[in-house]
Design brief:
This protein has 297 residues and is mostly helical. It is built from eleven helices and no strands.
């Protein structure tokens, strides 16, 4: 009559086990995800600001302190021109983050617009977008990047435009498939029957539903942007060697690794890895925060 407590047998002979929900606390559930995302964004912003402030020091040469190993005065060592590698790493991170973030953001917006036009438009729109995807994916990225960057006079603008125009096809396919599944839902059919325009369907129905996939794709575009920026810079069609960037630093360090100057590549590479992981943390946290099946507050 009084019920069964935890661990007490029930008439069927099976003990009843009651699992109390785990309390989230102050930093549990969504609060923990939001706090982690904000901390990562704060660290990224601090790295960008510190890099901008270190730009002048990063280009200062001192030929009396060339190829110094890491020490108290130079925690990241110095290069063959006596430049402080800590300052160059911070300045390079600032440049690479700005170039990668801008180009990845523009490329992801292009992917979202084309995916919505393909899935919510007519057969002709779908055929045009499919032809553009096949055209871009049929040519190696590095070739298109070199052509676009060279045509725009190289530099940061050429790299950003080149990456933005060549890295959207894969994300477009993913977002198009998600919107096509959404299009088959009954509420989408009701909206179309009520005369809702395609633009409003894309903004109010499709965009909120594909936002988690969009964020994941944006995060995955960032390391690709950094990699291809370093590639075309190494070939001489990207950023100038005088401009500090992680791609420039790593490409220059390759010629000095055999002489034992390991710090020229290890510290900038580790810093780049940390930045990429922070972007991944932000994207994962935002995806779970915006997901319908995310954790509860």
């Amino acid at each position: 009559e009084g019920g069964c407590s935890a661990g007490e047998p029930v008439p069927g002979g099976v003990p009843l086990r009651i699992h109390a929900p785990r309390p989230n606390g102050l930093l549990g559930g969504r609060r923990a995800l939001l706090a982690g995302a904000l901390v990562a964004l704060a660290v990224l912003a601090a790295a960008v600001v510190a890099g901008a402030l270190s730009a002048e020091r990063a280009s200062a040469t001192d030929f009396t302190a060339t190829n110094l190993a890491p020490c108290l005065e130079h925690p990241f060592g110095t290069d063959w021109m006596g430049r402080d590698m800590l300052a160059r790493t911070l300045a390079g991170l600032s440049t690479s983050v700005v170039v990668g973030a801008v180009s990845a953001a523009v490329s992801s917006v292009i992917a979202l617009v084309l995916a919505a036009a393909s899935a919510l438009g007519g057969p002709r729109d779908d055929a045009v977008v499919g032809w553009l995807i096949d055209l871009i994916m049929g040519v190696p990225h590095i070739v298109l990047l070199i052509l676009v960057s060279y045509a725009l006079g190289r530099g940061a603008a050429g790299v950003c435009v080149g990456v933005a125009l060549t890295h959207w096809p894969s994300l477009t396919r993913v977002l198009r498939a998600e919107i096509m599944q959404l299009r088959a839902q009954p509420f989408m059919a009701c909206s179309r029957a009520l005369g809702v325009s395609r633009a409003r369907l894309a903004l109010t129905h499709a965009l909120p539903c594909v936002l988690p996939q969009y964020l994941v794709g944006l995060v995955l575009l960032f390391p690709h942007a950094i990699l291809h920026e370093a590639s075309i810079t190494f070939l001489g069609f990207g950023l100038s060697p005088e401009q500090p960037a992680i791609g420039v630093i790593l490409s220059e360090a390759m010629g000095y690794l055999t002489s034992g100057a390991w710090w020229l590549a290890v510290f900038p590479g580790a810093a780049l890895l940390a930045v990429v992981l922070m972007f991944d943390r932000v994207g994962s946290a935002l995806r779970r925060l915006l997901s319908v099946e995310g954790v509860q507050a």
